[in-house]
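Trying the structure run again after the queue cleared.
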Amino acid sequence: MAAGADEQIRETVRKGYADIAQGKSGCCCGSSSPDRLATAVGYTNEELAALPDGANMGLSCGNPTAVADLKAGQVVLDLGSGGGFDVFIAARKVGPHGRAIGIDMTPEMLGKARGAIAKFAEKTGLLNVEFRLGEIEHLPVADNSIDVVISNCVINLSPDKPQVWREIHRVLRPGGKACVSDLALKEEPPAEVKASVQALVGCVAGAVRIEETIEMMRAAGLIDVAFRDKPYNMDAMDDCNDALYKMIRENLPEGKSLSDYVSSVDFAGYKKV
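Done. Tokens:
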């Protein structure tokens, strides 16, 4: 893909998520009922109760912090951290001697997440989170410095997914683990949806098949790659009134729903020791 097209996609995604952060749009890759969606994809009421207000924005398609089986003292990196949802959950799991770092390319999301740090510290007593501005294709993180990389419904948005997986491998410590919840194609969506750059913000046009993601993970150097295709009903997003998601629905054939084309998948892999 040409560099100009890549940047057009990034700008579309950046603007879409800036609108969400500013309350101008209800839900791109999620639901207008954030807690309902979060429990549907595997988050517990205890995890949600400890979050600062506004961190759960209904943008999840899985719970990578659960798949990662996080341990006290680990350093966790969240790609596309948004309002800090998974970063704050990971921070509680790794405890005061661990660290949770979020990377996001949208300044408005970064501001929202950073603004919630004080409330999170007040609720939990933890001062172990930070948020950095950056693109997931070019992580502002040192080589071999991260124990666990997580990401939630974000890599599908990247115009250069192989580069994202190479970056994940680069920043992981030897023996480190990548745990990603993402969307995957079951079958190709209509051309009207697939061709729309704006549909990327709805997490549809950018999704690829499970086998393609596995190939990218292995090509990046990850080993023991595994996946779990979850029976999550994508139609939980059908209450979304966001204009982009509405456009996607209108371009689906009669009798078809989003769940006919897309599923939610957990991917995991390790960096060789």
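The first strand starts at residue 75 and ends at 79. Worth checking whether this holds up in the mutant runs.
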